[in-house]
Amino acid sequence: MGLLRRILKNGRAAESAVPTDRAVPKAGDLGGSVQVRHVDAGSCNGCEIELGQAFSPVYDAERHGVRLVASPRHADVLTVTGPVTVNMAEPLRKTHAAMPEPRLVVAVGDCARDCGVFAGGHGVLGPVADVIPVDLHIAGCPPRPEQIVAVLRGLSGR
Amino acid sequence: MNPTGTALITALLLAATAALAALVFPAAWRARVVGTLVAGTGSSGVWAGAAALSGHGWDADLPRLLPLAGMRLAVDSLSGWFLLLIGAVAVAVGVYTIGYAGPGGRGAGSRPSLSLLPVFVGALLLVPAAGSVPTFLLGWELMAVTSLGLVATEHRHHAQVRSATVWYAAMTQAGFVTVLIGLTWLAAAAGTDFTAVRATAGVLSPAVKNAVFVLCLVGFAAKAGAVPLHPWLPRAHAEAPSHVSALMSAAMVKLGVYGLVRVGFDLLGGGPRWWWLTIAAIGALSALYGIMQAAVATDLKRLLAFSTSENIGLILLGVGFAGLYNVEGARGLAALAMAAALLHTLNHAGFKALLFLGAGSAVKATGTRDLDQLGGLSRRMPATTMLVAAGALGAAALPPGNGFVSEWLLLQSLLHQPGAGAVLAIAAPTAVAVIALTAGIGVATYVKAVGTGFLARPRRAAAAGATESPPSMIVAMIAVALACAVLAVLPTITLPAIGRIVASLHLVSPPLDGGLTAIQLSGYTTRFWPLWLAAAIVVVTGLVAVLARRFGRARRRAVAWDCGDGPLTSRMEYTATSFAEPLQRVFDDALAPERDVDVTHHEESAYHVQAIAYRQRIPDRIENRFYQPLLRAVERLGLAGRGLAPGVMHRYLAYMLTALIAVLLAGVIR
Amino acid sequence: MTSWAGAAAQLVLVGVLAPIVVGVTRAVRSRLEGRAGGRVLQPWRDLRKLLRKPPTSPPDAGIFFIAAPPVLMATSVIIAVTSPFITTVLPAGSADLIVVVGLLLLGTVALALAGLDTGTAFGGMGSSREMTIAALVEPTLLLSVFALSARVGSSNLGTIISAAASHPSTVFTPASVLAFAALAIATLAETARIPVDNPSTHLELTMVHEAMTLEYSGRDLALVEWASALRLTILLGLLANLFAPWGIAVSGSAAGLAIGAAAFAAKVLGLATVLAAGEVFAAKLRLFRVPELLAGSFALSLLAVLASYVLA
Asked: Which helix (H) or strand (E) holds B422?
């Protein structure tokens, strides 16, 4: 009964919906259903935490039809964080190749755009755009969950 | 002479001709000639069986053929059923042997092997046709000896074949001795002729009937491969060449069931309740133990052999419950249970023959029986894979396979039990639970066999080099698959024949009607349309596939998702051992696997490990618990017996003197 | 004629309702967990998008991988058409309960063989676990069939449901309650829900059903997801109609069909809500504890059988 009491006491934890990012081109035939597969190509995990928060009860991207999936075969959108390290370049390419068309790549965070604070590092290959074609960037170090949800909402169209 | 007699005599003559041909023809032609003649034998057997089932019984007396008692042949509808079954399997095996034995002249194509094969088939046809005790025993022993020779075909190549032959020889002869004692006791009490026995069975004392029944039960259950008399079965069926395994598993073990039905129902005219409870209990034990061992077996043919044990268990459950219902007076339900058991013998003969022939094809192409090393055969041997999958569908008792139909009938006979009596009230739900658990584990077993043995990528080099089998083998398998398909969608064609059989066993006709396409229990709303169900599955699947192709985008081929760090090697595929591991854990207490871990340390430091060797074996616990002590006791007895013959002449002279004095005393005292 | 109309109505209703049932379970879970959650029609949007994407096959996979989604769909469709959900007036009478259990198992086997056909480790793992669970659920299912059929003397679904509809008092016997409990646990195992399997997990080592479908994409995945939703709806519908058959149409009239459809939708959605609420309070069991749960359900079904003999 403790859990039930806590459910009734806490009520709804989700905040009101984030307005959609109008600058995002609506991804046409996704029609309100976006499955996201995430790859960490070598980040410090700061963006991962914010991405995790975007799917948490507070920001809840799922209400816009966005869901995280385990296999790239099930995914439409590939989110990549971090500069691409030497060891993760090939796995990133393979993940992208495993996704069926139509597929989009969203680079999350400053490191994914231009390697951020890791530029010139020993194990760093380059930004994500050097390895796979990128469709969208989300700026920030790390970007706020509202920014991430706004972009995903724009992709979904709901 | 009526058609049954003509066909049976033709079959036996063709068998003899084939045996002679094997001795005469050179290696290049041997397999072809013998195979064709064996197929001819089988066809005549099928004809004889079909004729007997349509009402043409046949009797023949040949008093001079055997000394002292003569030979007597009598074919009625029960014999006809088994003649049909054996003949059909023999046709397929005959055609298969043409390709399997090949023109090499070695192994399965050698003179001894190819001459024993037709004699084996002839003996298999003789046993159900026997009309007197000596004929039956002759046929039984001939069958045992010829199959022993066939099992030993490859004894030069593998040591396990020799061990399997010894086990098979010992157990089959022990079974024969038990049947011999039982049947000769019966003959002494009631006469050698089966008709004489039937007439006198009513006046036999219950003690004699019980004793004969127990002896015959032991012997026939051993031949059928029922647990706990099964240790010969996985060994012999695995080590024998595959066409022989098919004959043994599909045809020979059914003669154990034939013997039980003939002696229990027909000759002795039914018996007290404990007879049938014992048969049902043996059936339940065989079903459960057989399928558990099959589920964890990694040798393909050992898996199939234990599955035979399981199906025999289901058949014996049907026979046992038929007897139980008969004792309670519910003759219609007894007929239904017997119909289910008989139909399952036929269905099992079909899918097990198909599976063993397919396994033989795969083993011949890859050189290994180990499921952990096979795989990838769906690309290299597509026909064999599809045919084995069809056999597995029947064996797993899934709709629309033929195994599902007989299992449905068996479950229906248990569901409608008359409700009177505590024994049935406990036995029927227990039997349903056993059948259900067996069916569930059986499905997992066959998914393992087909999935790890034939699909995905080859796990070792041997499987990678496989090529499709010669056309005669494929044709034989297709023929068996077609027979299974007919039995699956039109099982009602066997109903008139089954009706005749149960009438001859003094039961009423089974309460089944519903025309050609439906199985309906008379008086109940229970019905089932195998034909429409199979058609629906095929049509709807096709429709969904076609619509999806038509309205969707084209399929693309892409490397399997390997989480980014590939490539996937064949070592990363699930093996048969790993597939069965969760089931093995669940039944850990019953299976008690033996594990060995050998750790080799570095020579410089005992803290560093150089190599670890891990070995797991799942033993046959019943064999270890019952047979090993027995074998050790026999060995000790033998060793003790050697003490009687130390080689000292004085001792032997003393023996002779003692024996002489004992005989003289006995002559005087009497 | 009316029987075919009833069958068509059932097919359409079950087909349309199935993704909505999944949507309802997700919506209830998210509301109880304090989230906003997706809409109830979200699974339909997912299916629409997936149907438009191309399917992929690994190069080693053969006919079993490609044929599994249509076979899975076909078995679910056949059960939906022949089982009494809206009406008991169906072509050729209704299905036999043992045949329904067999068809469900056939669908499971098709997917398990597809998992092995991919040649990946996860596919094999999913197949192995799924077949173990299916093997252990089978005794519960068949013994519950026995308990339900022994009462009315037939394993025909139409007969069982009509008998229960005309004698409402038989629903509240101990045998019924025990059989309901046993079948409820078996349903959880067959449909891969908590506590047997977590349908929304991303960790492959915790997957059972999802692991077999990791390699599917596009319209193959759409068919597999839809068929899984159909199986959930079918099993919940059977559970509802076997034990609470009120509202089912016994004649072929249009009004009867409409009432039957409404009753079926209400019952299934209600059961789905209860299922989802239960999932919030429970956690997935360790794989090697699942046999204990299934053995418990087997014991319940055995008790149901004995109760139906002793008390009826």
From this structure: helix B422-454
